[in-house]
Amino acid sequence: MGVWKNDLLIKKFRVNKGEYMNFEGAFTWALGIATLCMVLFIRAVFDWDFVIDLLCSKIRRSKKLKKMMEERETILAGQGLSKEKRQAFEEVLIPLTKGDKNLLPSRMDKIFRKETENQLQLLKDRGLRLEFYFAGVSSSGNFTKWNDGGREWREAELEGAILERFVTSSGNIIQEIYHNRGVMTIRQSRRIRHDDRKEKKQQYYEDLSIYCQSCGAELMLNTQEVNCPYCGAVISRKFFDWQMESFDFYTKISETGEIFLLLSALWFFIFIVSWIGFLLYKISLIASIIVVLLAIAFPVWLLWHGDRQQENLKKQIVRYSESYLRTCINEALWQKEDKQNLLSFGIDKIKLKSVNHKGDKTYIRLKTTVSKTFLPNTGKPIHKKERMILWMERAKYPERVRNKGKVFEEKECPSCGANFMPDENNNCSYCGYGLRVYNGKWKLSE
């Protein structure tokens, strides 16, 4: 029975005696192998949710849009986020959707506040406001936390389908943008008490003891505000509150057309080379096998090499953080832009090209795509994307250099913008920011 099946297989591809792979047979095998390789490549690089979105984009999108329109108590309610993380994101999202800068957190980074207020003012001048709707939100774990320069930092990221709308005051939708793989990242920091730093704690303020300013009773400040049970005074301790440092919103996979173009090029390469390899079968079995294996191995090596190269470059940078680098790029470029009609400014995927260390500094060259949204007098948003090659620099060991930096002499805190007089520890009296020049921030190289 097995011999009979093998005979049929041989006859299927035989044209002349001694020839076992004809033109049609080679085409069929090459087509099958190229398609199978593409499925495996997509599965290795992307998750199944993305693959299904590509194949069933209209069906998936309609389902997500329906889920987005469900009535919710708050913007991110019912998305599976912890209360603490949800409230942190909504501190920025609620003012944007309400169009009211008075709702912004009282503690914000100075440049970030200017950028957000500029956005809200432009929307108000054009008679518009933003709306955000979410579906399929995923956010691993809780906040990522670390300590640096006398401050405790935390960062959170959420990813999912995000619908962004521009709506008039009367409720008319001017424009809506569907981000299939939208990503939002927030970063916050707060001062660490001197006693906590000496004890090298990992958790802070759970047992913060304070004294009532009215009657002097000792109280435990375990919330933003407490009421004194003895005299009824309301006590707020903002000195140790979280300060909003940055908020980034970008599309993880922004150019679906580019993905299809890349996958099509890889598929075409595997198909053509495999086809040639199968046609060589009648000349040399060994040559045929080598060519087919090369057709499969080269794209695999190409993807692996690109990923490994990025990882090696990242390892060369002390305490590298892509999200922090994105914030620094955003801040540096935003300050150079003409802000007359500029509504928002975002940095998409970052690809490192080179890393060099010279003396006590690190220099990097990177490639990224800058997304800009303009809101002219016509009231209809205009979106532009610009690919850029940037050269940036910072201290090689930011923690070491920070302690040796000179002290700011301005009367305005470079972090929160509050007026201050540096104390004996050179800290801002409002947000606790260390008032030494922080050489850990990425800056554009001249």
Write the H/E string, N to C.
Answer: HHHHHHEEEEHEEEEEHHHEEEHE
Q: Mean of the pLDDT scores?
A: 77
* Portion in beta strands: 25-35%
| Alpha plus pi helix count | 11
- The geometry reads as globular
Gyration radius (Cα, Å) is 28 Å
Task: Give the topology.
Blueprint: H1 2-13, H2 23-45, H3 48-55, H4 57-68, H5 83-98, H6 110-125, E1 128-138, E2 144-148, E3 151-168, E4 173-191, H7 194-199, E5 209-211, E6 218-220, E7 225-227, E8 234-236, E9 243-251, H8 256-279, H9 285-315, H10 322-334, E10 342-358, E11 361-374, E12 382-395, H11 398-404, E13 443-444
Antiparallel strand pairs: 1-3, 2-3, 3-4, 4-9, 5-6, 7-8, 10-11, 11-12, 12-13
Helix pairs in contact: 2-8, 3-4, 8-9
How would you describe what is shown here?
- There is one protein chain.
- This protein has 446 residues and is α+β, with helices and mostly antiparallel strands.
- It has two domains: 2-45 and 267-315, no CATH class; 64-193 and 242-252 and 317-444, no CATH class.
- It is 38% helix and 27% strand.
- Strands 1, 2, 3, 4 and 9 form a five-stranded antiparallel beta sheet that branches. Strands 10-11-12-13 form a four-stranded antiparallel beta sheet.
- Strand 5 and strand 6 form a beta hairpin.
- Helix 8 runs antiparallel to helix 9 (285-315).
- The longest helix is centred in the C-terminal third of the chain and has 31 residues, at 285-315.
- The chain is globular and about 100 Å long.
- 22% of the residues are buried.
- Mean pLDDT is 77; it is low at 1-19, 194-199, 201-207 and 400-410.
